[in-house]
Amino acid sequence: MTEPVKPESLNPRSQPDSKPKSGGLKWLLIIGGIIVLAALIWYARHRAAAASDASSGGGGRSGGNFPVPVVTGKVMQKDVPIYLDGLGTVQAFNTVTVHTRVDGELVKVAFTEGQDVKTGDVLAQIDPAPYKAALDQAVAKKAQDEAQQANAKVDLKRYADLLASDGTTQQTYDTQKALVDQLGASVKADQAAIDSAQVNLDYATIHSPIDGRTGIRLVDQGNIVHASDAGGLVVLAQLKPISVIFTLPETVMTKLHMRQNQPSFTVIALTRDNTNVLATGELAVIDNQIDSTTGTIKIKANFANENLRLWPGEFVNTRLLLSTRTNGLVVPASVVQRGPEGSYAFVVQDDQTVKMRPLKVAQIDNGLALIDDGLKPDEVVVVDGQYKLQDGSHIKAAEPTGSGSTNAPAKAHQHKQSPSGQPPT
């Protein structure tokens, strides 16, 4: 017998759901879409960065189609002077503080401050009256003693005649002879006194001991001066010639000793900014000892200084010409790059790619680098634009925009830089 159908079974909402719910699937689809979108954005940015790097020359490492524009130049050969640079002080060739050698009133100053004087020129006059009187007194004393000596000689002759005829004793003769000798010694002493008085009188007139230029007057006319005064009357400085004393590291002594048979070393004096040559002279002397506190050696050079461009007390830069490198390899200073492993340069290959070449640099001077090792004559090197290059980058030669070629002039006597810290041979 069948059971009657219940009303609840006829309502579909009251039946249990036989299909799985779709809410979790929707969330999975949303998350997956976000991941795909993020991946697309990352890919697009990566492609854009790669394209930008290639356009700026970064793709040159693998030989891309974007050559880097650079300025190039050739390795040249020329005679290169090798200098030793130092800091020096100008010193007068001779300096004299003029003192009086006698005491008295300064009655005359015969020079003008800043005047050029010659040896023997009169500089000042001390009151000569006391010294003239002393000279006259010495002369008179000598005349008196000479008269007494003459009389004693006459008496001695008489005693000699009497002694021969037994008219006097030997003792009387000997006494008279001793008197003559005594008076002769007095005459000699008088002559010495005359000479001394004459010297003092001569010292009353002060002469220039050297050729030089007077400085500021230290004592005015009318003052009483003494030989013991510390200040003196004026300072004379000899400016033609003139000297420069400068220092060099003790390590250069080996270089100098290797060339000790060289007739002379040329020394150039320059302004502190190394832009103007003041004078050219020769090395005069190397000091006989090294300063152990600073590790330097003093060197003195002399200059004719005809144009008076060097002045005592002035600080100057000095350059001692050690030698000249014949047919040295030179490139513009901008060719030399520095990296963790030392100096290098970009050398242009036949296929218009560049190769990093390690260098041994002797010195950088006057806008040119002297190369000891690493380059050959007429090789092409990159002068400007290296900051975009890597080993193997393709390049395109461009026109130089400044002083980037080996023929470009540089500042005269630009300060030398030596990568090794030592002067080259």
Features:
425 residues, Elongation Factor Tu (Ef-tu), domain 3, OB fold (Dihydrolipoamide Acetyltransferase, E2P), six-stranded antiparallel barrel, 4 helices, 22 strands, 33% strand
**At CATH's second level, what is the architecture of the largest domain?**
Beta Barrel
Order of strands side by side in the largest beta sheet?
2-11-14-13-12-15
Q: Number of DSSP helices?
A: 4
Instruction: Give the integer mean of the pLDDT values.
Output: 84
Q: Write down the CATH topology of the largest domain.
A: Elongation Factor Tu (Ef-tu), domain 3
Question: Mind explaining what this structure looks like?
Answer:
The chain is α+β, with helices and mostly antiparallel strands and 425 residues long. The chain has 2 domains: 79-89 and 239-397, Efflux pump adaptor protein, beta barrel domain (Elongation Factor Tu (Ef-tu), domain 3, Beta Barrel); 95-234, OB fold (Dihydrolipoamide Acetyltransferase, E2P) (Beta Barrel). The chain contains 4 helices and 22 strands. It has helices spanning 23-55, 129-164, 170-203, 253-258, and strands at residues 68-74, 76-92, 95-98, 104-109, 116-117, 122-126, 205-207, 212-214, 224-225, 234-237, 242-249, 266-270, 277-291, 296-303, 315-332, 337-339, 342-348, 354-358, 360-365, 368-373, 380-384, 395-397. A 6-stranded antiparallel barrel has the order 2-11-14-13-12-15. α2 (129-164) runs antiparallel to α3 (170-203). The chain is rod-shaped.
